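Hi C.,

You asked whether I'd gotten around to modeling the 266-residue construct. I have! Everything is below, sequence then structure, no commentary in between.
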Amino acid sequence: MCELFAMSARYPSTVRFSLEEFSRHGGLSGPHKDGWGLAWYDERDVRLVKEILPAASSRYVLFIQDNPFVSPFVISHVRKATRGNVALRNCQPFLRELGGAWHSFAHNGDLADIERNARLRAGAYRPVGETDSELAFCALLERLRPLWLTDGPPDVEARLRVIEAVAVELRDLGPANFLYCDGDALFAHADRRHQDEGAIRPPGLWRLARHCAAGGELSATGLRIESHGAAQDVALVASVPLTLEDWIPMARGEILVARGGQLQRA
């Protein structure tokens, strides 16, 4: 299975050690050697970097570590190929425009026969690659599309209801841990994943909330968060805990919503 990482911050924040540790799972301490990707939001746009080489030995990862970016939303993924060739088009996160906003998505798991599932049709969206993950993203956007036909982001509860319904249908097909961001909110759905002993069971995702008081900074296990004169809140989600802190396992079917670095639902 692939591995996921995401961040939501109240003010644009820098990811250093968590990304570094996460990349180690991409071919160094883990078996995920079939590519990686990183998407971070910059105002109303998104910067996306993907590569088919292992993240642990990537010069791009080293460049990002030496030239850290700031962002309110980050999604990252390291891949262990199960469907589709080892190719850039099959690396995640995936990115699409909808309603004048960039939407990003990353998934781990195995969604059996999703291409033949009548409830999960891609509709107006078409996958570029061959993965079940991209098909799931296209189906999710097709369901969300009516909400985004008005100006600005739709109500977060309306978005959540659609995401919950799609998540239930995905879980029927197999493990369906996914991260989805529309530039206004980060949604993380937890299911099951391959654990160290080989069993497929929860938790599929873990979460961590951090706070930095106004005028101070928080530096824990290499992840530095500066308050920039105001209180800073950061929410992190990952397939496995990345730091020696009190990460909380997410229950199967649990959906986390993060806006401004705060968990609105967990």
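If it helps when you're writing up: The chain has a mean pLDDT of 86.

Thanks,
B.
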